[in-house]
Amino acid sequence: MAFVKHLKYPFMKLFEPQVQLLRQINVDGPDSFFLHAVTFCDRTCYRSSGYAPLPAGPDENGDFVVDLYLEESADTDGDYHLLTPVVHSLSLGEIPFPDGEGNVLVNMILVTAGESRNTEEQTKEGQKKEGRTVGKRTVGSTGALDDSRPML
Hints:
Blueprint lengths: L17 E7 L7 E10 L4 E6 L11 E10 L11 E11 L8 E9 L8 H4 L7 E10 L4 E2 L6
Parallel strand pairs: 1-8, 4-6
Antiparallel strand pairs: 1-2, 2-5, 3-4, 6-7
């Protein structure tokens, strides 16, 4: 099955992740972040396939790059042309942004059929897979939701 961006959903961009960040403030070090991404696909055969190993910190541009994997599954009971959300939720850990703030760049990568969930080793989170980027989203840490908890 070929990857095609259909025009029947003109109100949204398919295969581009909608990203939310949650910040957990650490008084003694860099803040911890959690990422929640929902990617809308045009068919029911797409599903989450994990993410690449997380970097130790921001790259030379100051961006923390996260690669999320999306696969076209042959295991589903049919392939229907219905709007389908694919969800990725993961802890990014402590991110040592310069000056305390920065950007998280999320790449949505469609993995090739040979790379998708064929072995137990490939199903583990944090395994690098080959594919092509089908969507991107950048979100700033200043817009992250605060995980405020009352102190007891």
